[in-house]
Design goal:
The structure is a homodimer of 427-residue chains.
Chain A (H helix, E strand, L loop, with lengths): L2 H4 L7 H20 L3 H17 L1 H17 L4 H7 L3 H15 L8 E6 L5 E8 L2 E6 L4 H12 L3 E5 L5 H17 L7 E3 L5 H8 L7 E5 L2 H10 L12 E5 L5 H13 L8 E7 L5 H10 L3 E4 L1 H4 L6 E2 L13 E7 L1 H12 L4 E5 L3 H10 L4 E6 L16 E3 L7 E3 L5 E12 L3
Parallel strand pairs in A: 3-4, 3-6, 4-5, 7-8, 7-12, 8-11, 9-10, 9-11, 12-13
Antiparallel strand pairs in A: 1-2, 2-16, 14-15
Chain lengths: 427, 427
């Protein structure tokens, strides 16, 4: 696993390495922050071209990672995340070009006004600056993060997982080539050249050098980042999502939405983990049966367990569990108020949904449930930047500050205030 | 100074106190977050009425603080910040009513779209939740913070300075009465009932209970808050602001802007601290002379010091100094590029301005200077939420995340995504 360490100079000081990378990133960010949209798009198109032209080299690098991963005993799921093939690589290149086609957020005017003294005031989007991204096994994150960072005018410092080190370097090389071809600074996309964990620590403490850290990975990674970071973190925590079946739900929609929200893909953060069924709803058993028929293990409270011998009794821990698996907890609640109280107590405030034909109840749910995404008669599996029309996403933020829910180009920007005067002084 | 401690039960555990206050704030925030605009405005009008009706009580409380402050040897400047009189109190009440008249940010739609599958997507503003505000001697902050918090639907936990403890309690009582009169939870505006510094520490670590901490005060306070906080902080650091006099500046505007930007009020964060003069500018001496005539001490680099025997030589530290006093550093630079390099190296990225009649140079300055506020032909003293039309401000943020520059009602909100479907499932 550490073969790459042999090819690097000894790491005297992780903080020095990160300080040097940060300084180069800052210089690159200054240029990228005022780069024309066409130049940024050209760099992305050139990078996508490189990803296709260098497919053999990238797939060979990936094969080395896969071989090392098998030797190290990675699970089949992890190996699948790590694996690239022609099709997946083409998809990565397509995604880079899709980002190049998105509207450039930099320079967009958020608001404009004229003050009584004649000063013109405007607020315009500017890049955040230097963005650190710490992620795990999927090599596509290297390309996604580089593309989103570049298009939003930010310099990025990428630190991928050790299991994907060769794949990440090969993909990174395509962006360096793309930046150079477009006449933009190659330092705008840097990859931390060591898997030494001290470098992660240094990145998390690089106040003034790095403007924001975005962790992408499992709970262990995110928790470590949040705990150690002195740089602000845009983090994604659990997706303990609820689907509430109201008394006024359409039974056919309820079944279809419950099965899709839970079972379409069980491993994504938008998957429903708990279904709440109004005591007054007419057909709870159909929901339970449909989930079981779809291969889902159902854990129910007393009322739900009484419906079917195939329901396991839920324990207290089930209501706070992100299964990320074909398991669902189902509880009976007393109407809207009961659902709201359960969601308040147990939701991770990622995505919660109601199924109802009663418009007033739906609007109350949308207003009163305080989650990043609140849905009416739609599957929680839609919680995704691409599905929301953002073109791509760097993650889904579960905090409340700066950005909430799917984060894409706009979430990678801040703003500044511009004042255009004619000599005004303050009285 | 600690007389108030005698009137309180012994503080067994600061963390317990803050946890209890936080839980009550969270419950209040839930109600306030969905309260109609009219109810919030009614509470503010009732609070303003109380501030006027209870003027004698509030001024008597302030007199106790002033007497204690004199005994404790507070400086004249601090005593002036602490002092209330009929006029100042009326101004505080007026400011509360001005906030009540501002547009309610909660529920405002930021964007809306319809997805190809027919789902309606919208993004609407919601309150941040529970806001902790830690501040120093000015008792008007109690009213400003309470009013802005309440109008933006947030519960606030206020922790003022010990020197203003009686004034703050009397002003806080007006808000409790106003909330109760409007039928809103009194716990929406809480004042930490002890000056024990352990309570500040507990507030800074109240993750999950408090959504954001806003420090208002001097560098010592802000630095402590940033260092200790585990809750996100919206902080205001230095205002090392620059006024760049370009070769194409109008000399009359240059003199007027330089004197106003530096001398109108020297103690505010929007005051200019360094003036940069283009080597090619025709009349640098007039700027130096006008500042000296206005009572300002001028510290110049070699070129500026050579202009007048009244200029002191600047030392290296002068270029990174927030004087907050009638002192200015003036340096000569080589045109736009020289000014940009100096600002990049020394600005605290609060407010920087250019004086020029050359529109192209002005636009380059606005685009390339990366500060929260960038101005053309206007005094840096305008860096203020009220002057920007925000109605009031809770502070000026010098960080890059969430909010930048003057922070008012909108900066105290986040957003959520609403999805209105008709049964859509994800393929």
């Amino acid at each position: 696993m550490n073969a790459e360490a042999l090819t690097l100079p000894p790491l005297a000081d992780a903080a020095t390495l990160i300080a040097e990378m940060g300084a180069r990133a800052r210089a690159a960010a200054k240029r990228l922050g005022v780069a024309p949209t066409a130049d940024k798009a050209a760099a992305l198109h050139a990078a996508a071209h490189q990803l296709r032209a260098q497919a053999a080299v990238i797939l060979e690098a990936n094969a080395r990672d896969m071989a090392a991963g098998k030797t190290a005993g990675l699970t089949a799921a992890l190996l699948d995340r790590l694996r690239l093939d022609e099709g997946r690589l083409a998809g990565i290149a397509d995604a880079v070009e899709a980002v190049a086609a998105l509207p450039d957020p930099v320079g967009a005017e958020i608001e404009r006004s004229v003050r009584p003294n004649g000063m013109e005031l405007s607020r315009v989007r500017v890049p955040l600056g230097v963005v650190g991204i710490i992620y795990e096994s999927r090599p596509n994150v290297t390309a996604d993060a580089a593309a989103l960072g570049l298009m939003s005018g930010n310099a990025v410092i990428l630190r991928g997982g050790s299991e994907a080190v060769h794949s990440n370097r090969a993909i990174h090389a395509a962006f360096v080539a793309g930046l150079e071809e477009a006449g933009l600074p190659a330092d705008a996309v840097q990859l931390v050249p060591t898997q030494d964990r001290a470098a992660v620590g240094a990145l998390l403490r690089a106040q003034g050098l790095v403007d924001i850290i975005i962790p992408r990975g499992g709970k262990g990674l995110v928790a470590r980042v949040q705990d150690e970071a002195r740089v602000p973190v845009l983090a994604h925590l659990d997706g303990i999502n609820h689907l509430y079946i109201d008394a006024a739900a359409d039974p056919a929609k309820a079944v279809e939405l419950a099965v899709n929200a839970k079972m379409r893909r069980t491993g994504i953060c938008g998957a429903t983990e708990t279904i709440l069924i109004d005591r007054a709803y007419s057909a709870p058993l159909a929901i339970v049966d449909a989930l079981i028929a779809a291969g889902c293990e159902v854990r129910g409270d007393k009322a739900i367990a009484a419906l079917s011998p195939h329901v396991e009794p839920a324990t207290a821990g089930d209501w706070d569990c992100e299964y990320l698996d074909a398991i669902v907890s189902i509880g009976q609640v007393d109407g809207f108020a009961g659902a709201l109280a359960h969601i308040d107590a147990h939701s991770s405030r990622h995505t919660d949904a109601i199924v109802t034909e009663d418009a007033a109840t739906a609007e109350r749910f949308l207003a009163e449930v305080d989650s990043a995404i609140v849905m009416h008669n739609a599957s929680t599996q839609f919680a995704d930047g691409g599905e929301f029309g953002l073109g791509a996403e760097i993650g889904i933020a579960t905090g409340r500050l700066h950005a909430r829910g799917p984060v894409a180009l706009e979430g990678l920007t801040t703003y500044k205030w511009l004042v255009r005067g004619t000599g005004q002084v303050r009285l």
